[in-house]
């Protein structure tokens, strides 16, 4: 090989030696951090973003959820907190702009109550959804992939948690601990919600662990944690996302119900407390004069539940590799056509 290269170098005046050495050196260069960050951005931000934006449900759900986040951060920061005698009493909606959506019989702004209940609700949703899906993902994945004694123990633990009635358990724990922290309330509400999801994830893992690419990874000596994080869990993400949205909706409805019944402490603002006041104090279900006090929290509850449903349905396509590849290919072809048109115009 050396003689051939030397003879070619003499015949071509040394140009082949330079070309050969250039190719050899470039092949040994490692991928830079900038290129790795670019690949990470393309794989986990750009392509999922294309898929999410392509789906109308994701756009609508994302916009609605963004509005709630804006209300819970900026709105709660700037809008006055609800207090008694804040505005004139029993104002109808749009009657006085000091209370655009009306006021209660004690002079509390209804809009202020709805806005300042949003931050704690968002915290409860995030905490409860993450807690339930994380516990279910860990237990279901480990049980389904490990099998044997580990599977039997974890499955029995899940079965025991499923047999305990959820709402009575939450009511007892709420009365015993009287939690006033939204994080603790979110965890308390989903204390055994994870059990059914964990069993479902275990069933999915039992199928995935027999797939050909998982068998190939085990044959090549790939470690179990790497197989779980690279081969098993990514294929579970669409199912996990949908159930995360379901867990979040469960937190919304359960917390509102518990606050309405007076089981959870009223020190944390919540739309359920508004419903309770509208029903018991204002008699919103008796006549139509105070019906707005019932409608405002109901609209807030329906809006955030709708956003979670739409996001779950739309994000289910984010982890579909065929959709991501198609949309990324369309985007790259459009960019190439734009570049070609610019070259032709020059």
Q: Which descriptors apply to this entry?
A:
mainly alpha; 75% helix; 346 residues; disordered N terminus; 14 helices
Instruction: Please trace the helix and strand order, writing H or E for each element.
Output: HHHHHHHHHHHHHH
Low-confidence stretches: 1-29, 331-339
- The amount of helix comes to over 70%
Number of discrete helical segments: 14
Give the CA-CA distance, first to last residue. 46 Å
**SS class:** mainly alpha
How many beta-strand elements? 0
How much is the radius of gyration in Å? 29 Å
Please state roughly what percent of the residues sit in beta strands, choosing from under 5%, 5-15%, 15-25%, 25-35%, 35-45% or over 45%: under 5%
Strand count, sense and barrel status of the largest sheet are: none
Outline: globular
Mean pLDDT over the residues: 81
Write the SSE topology.
Blueprint: H1 2-11, H2 15-27, H3 33-54, H4 56-78, H5 110-146, H6 148-163, H7 166-177, H8 182-189, H9 194-208, H10 212-219, H11 224-261, H12 271-280, H13 292-315, H14 321-345
Helix pairs in contact: 1-2, 3-14, 4-5, 4-13, 5-6, 5-8, 5-9, 5-11, 6-9, 9-11, 10-11, 11-12, 11-13, 12-13
Overview of this protein structure:
The chain is an all-alpha fold and 346 residues long. It is 75% helix and 0% strand. It is globular, with a radius of gyration of 29 Å.
